[in-house]
């Protein structure tokens, strides 16, 4: 695929290198030519100086042949406008925009522009490390209604089937992390020592789910 990236900061340059290593052709846009110094010496993609929402700049970057467009500059407005131009003017279906304001990210997500709200994501990641106990969300949908959460199951659940935990907690287990590898459980999958259980649920149910899982541990003592 040919992929156009707007913004040659740390995220943009990292994406460009990863995508090129995977065999894709890449064009990266930045209004500051000095930003291209972040690209490695052997980078073969196009370096285009300009604004990502400018049609001539996008054309120079090969937007007409692009399968995807990514906007990861430091400005919310520039990112969303560029993403809309790529989609609405040039017909690129696969677009993603980084948005720092989570409230605006939710609005644009509902309008059909996939967004990454970096402030919310970063806050969630930090909270997971500060408060490892309980069901801290690993992911949430743009509305904040549905979350993926890591459950603190404890040793009391070792040897029990995943179906039993689901019944007790009233939720669905999405996957287990077992010895560093993801495992999608079946009805007869048994929880082993060291398993990390990830559940998908409504955000408002997390406290209840965590309490239900913890009841078994309390009963064991």
TrEMBL record:
Segments forming domain RCK C-terminal: 133-215
Domain of life: Bacteria
SUPFAM superfamilies assigned: NAD(P)-binding Rossmann-fold domains (SSF51735), TrkA C-terminal domain-like (SSF116726)
Entry keywords, A to Z: Ion channel, Ion transport, NAD, Potassium, Potassium transport, Transport
Domain RCK N-terminal: 1-118
Alphabetized PROSITE patterns for the sequence: RCK_C, RCK_N
GO biological process: monoatomic ion transmembrane transport
Pfam family, one: TrkA_N
Protein name in UniProt: Trk system potassium uptake protein TrkA
Organism: Actinomadura gamaensis
High-level lineage: Bacteria, Bacillati, Actinomycetota, Actinomycetes, Streptosporangiales
